[in-house]
Amino acid sequence: MDFTKWQGCGNDFVLVDCLQEKIKDYAAFARKVCDRHYGVGADGILVVLPSEKADFCMRIFNTDGSEAEMCGNGIRCFARYLYDNGIAKGTEFTVETGAGILVPKIVTEDGAAKAVCVDMGKPVLAGDEIPVTGFGKGQVVSEPIEVAGKTYAMTCVSMGNPHCVIFVEDIAACGIEHIGALFESHERFPRKTNTEFVEVRDRKHMRMRVWERGAAITLACGTGACATLVAAVLNDKADKKAEIELDGGKLVIEWADNGHIYMTGPAEQVFSGKIEE
Ligand code: ZDR
Question: Residues 90-93: contacts with CB within 8 Å, 24+ apart?
Answer without folding.
Answer: 93/54, 93/55, 93/56
